[in-house]
Write a structure and sequence with these properties.
The protein is an alpha/beta fold and about 575 residues long. It has three domains: about 210 residues, no CATH class; about 100 residues, no CATH class; about 130 residues, no CATH class. A hairpin with a 6-residue loop joins strand 3 and strand 4. Helix 2 packs across helix 7 and helix 21 packs antiparallel against helix 22. The chain is globular, with a radius of gyration of 26 Å.
């Protein structure tokens, strides 16, 4: 009789607090890929957790998936072979809750999930209290994770606009931190406490522990083959083109590959999904390629050919026009084209693109109502971004808009009291104003693009191509010189409140920013007055820059936006 095989894996369900404790010292090994989660991933996680936490019963619990670690019994060191995206995101979320919490016991519990208590460190204190980080990532992103997330108070620090100097992992860490911070700081303290306790004590992760790093590497290799596999888009392309008659295949392949060259693999995947949503007027419940196969009957040679030559080519042309506007490659000469460029500044919330595509397919860029439609669509897109609308609800609203385009009613019911998808309610307008007036506007990941939009409204699009030259400038500096006039004009409390408000921000070229530096307003005023950007030139009329000027500028800049979007 054969002996049963005992696999060298021990699986244990642990709470989040149990994983981020003295029992584990989580380390991401060298073979792990970078941190890749983006806003749509963390937004979904936060929405799910909040809904669960608020509605939780005394027996409710929530599974957060599984992780695989290499760990010897009795020792805390644990190599994370799989699950690090989730662990980094949970660390960011807990650190934000820690920094926002005021109740001492809960704040201490949250803090202990990020850093071990003093005296339980790893000898790297270098003159400071010896503490151990519960999670350590790759060397390339480790310092950024510590300084912008794990260290006490770090999640409330604004980060300068230096995204081009960051790795993808670092940029995602900061972007996701800022998104989660913006969502949580605006909610009630009691709700944050509910979330914190639910997350620590009622959310479970299945920890699969293996005895050594060789087994961990083997598991990683098994789950993530390092060979270059064909993507889902590649497979779909092969299936569709393979069904087309040989005399038409070359033309169809050229159409497909031109779109692929212009959009890239991810862009082409987005295009295919937009087509599926537009066809269904609903979120696909199956894989996009399965939907397209069924919807267009792609198992037939003539149908596959028609799909590529007509549907894919037409939709792709409009999607490329939208991407060209985003990349400043198009010559924008029409009002509709300008609004496409403005829409392209709504980054990471690009679900609006399918509504723009559908309108352009139905009506065209030169239709007399296109400018108004794109203005209303831009307003909706920005309102969704600023309010931090949940991705599922955001997409549902755009799908409703698709149906209104079909019915010819998209521009009806868009007034303040209207009930159309493009109508922006009084509550939504009020919320936009509240967010734009908040003290920590610089934590908003869209800040640079919103300033570009204000600038475009001020200068009549004369400098509409300035994206590559634009840098963010704090008029009242982040770090004023020791003996500057700024210390007389702003008390420490005022400095903390006003420094990162919308009204204290402007745009300068890099050359102008090097001239302005952190000088007193009287010194930097000539640079502002002569700037390439209208947003800065308007400051030339000011003789000083004090808290009341920032309050007034915030209100004026918000009004400029609301008027540009047709909301005033």
């Amino acid at each position: 009789m054969l002996e049963p095989i005992v696999a060298p894996i021990v699986a244990t369900a642990r709470t989040v607090a149990g994983i981020l404790s003295d029992e584990y010292r989580l380390v991401l090994p060298y073979f792990q890929r970078g941190y890749a989660w983006q806003e749509q991933h963390v937004a979904r996680l936060l929405t799910d957790l909040l809904e669960r936490a608020i509605a939780a019963s005394s027996t409710d619990w929530y599974p957060l998936g599984s992780i695989i670690v290499s760990k010897l019994p009795g020792l805390p060191e644990a190599w994370v072979a799989d699950g690090h995206q989730r662990l980094i995101t949970l660390t960011i979320l807990i650190a934000i809750l820690r920094d926002l919490e005021t109740e001492p016991d809960l704040k201490s519990r949250l803090a202990d999930c990020i850093l071990a208590p003093v005296g339980q460190g790893n000898g790297e204190g270098k003159g400071e209290p010896d503490r151990a980080y519960r999670l350590s990532t790759h060397e390339a992103a480790q310092q950024r994770l510590r300084s912008s997330v794990q260290d006490l108070g770090a999640t409330s620090l604004s980060w300068p606009d230096e995204a081009e100097d960051l790795s993808e992992s670092e940029a995602n860490i900061i972007d996701n931190r800022d998104y989660l911070h913006a969502q949580l700081i605006e909610g009630p303290a009691l709700q944050r406490q509910q979330l914190a306790r639910y997350l620590l004590d009622r959310c479970f992760i299945l920890v699969c522990a293996v005895p050594d790093q060789n087994v961990a590497r083997l598991l990683f290799s098994t789950m993530h083959d390092t060979g270059l596999k064909p993507s889902a888009v590649d497979l779909f392309k092969a299936q569709v083109l393979g069904r087309i008659r040989s005399d038409a295949r070359d033309e169809c392949q050229t159409i497909w590959e031109r779109l692929e060259a212009g959009l890239g693999q991810s862009g082409l995947a987005d295009l295919l999904r937009h087509i599926a949503v537009i066809e269904l007027r609903a979120v696909p419940k199956q894989q996009v390629h399965t939907v397209l196969e069924t919807r267009f009957e792609l198992d037939e040679a003539s149908a596959a050919q028609s799909f590529v030559q007509r549907r894919l080519r037409a939709a792709g042309a409009h999607f490329l026009a939208i991407r060209d506007a985003a990349n400043h490659q198009a010559t924008v000469t029409t009002p509709g084209g300008r609004h496409l460029r403005y829409l392209s500044w709504v980054r990471n919330h690009d679900t609006w693109a399918m509504a723009a595509m559908h309108w352009l397919e139905r009506r065209g860029i030169d239709d007399p109502e296109t400018e108004l439609f794109l203005q209303k669509l831009e307003a909706l897109a920005w309102v969704n971004v600023i309010r931090g609308e949940d991705p599922a609800r955001r997409e549902a609203r755009y799908i409703r808009l698709l149906k209104e385009i079909d019915a010819g009613t998209a521009l009806q019911g868009t007034a303040l009291q209207g009930n159309g998808a493009l109508a922006i309610s009084q509550a939504e307008r009020r919320r936009v104003r509240e967010v734009l007036a908040a003290p920590h506007f610089t934590n908003r990941r869209y800040r640079l693009f919103l300033l570009l939009r204000i600038n475009a409204a001020l200068d009549g699009d004369v400098r509409n191509g300035s994206l590559a030259e634009a840098t963010l400038e704090h008029i009242f500096p982040v770090r004023p010189a020791a003996k500057s006039q700024w210390h007389a004009d702003f008390t420490p409390k005022q400095a903390a409140r006003y420094r990162n408000m919308l009204g204290n921000l402007t745009l300068l070229t890099e050359t102008e920013q090097n001239q302005a530096k952190n000088h007193d307003f009287a010194v930097k005023r000539p640079t502002l007055a002569a700037s390439e950007f209208a947003l800065s030139r308007r400051l030339g009329d000011h003789q000083a820059w004090r808290p009341q000027d920032i309050e007034r500028a915030t209100s004026e800049m918000t009004d400029i936006l609301m008027r540009s979007w047709g909301l005033m």
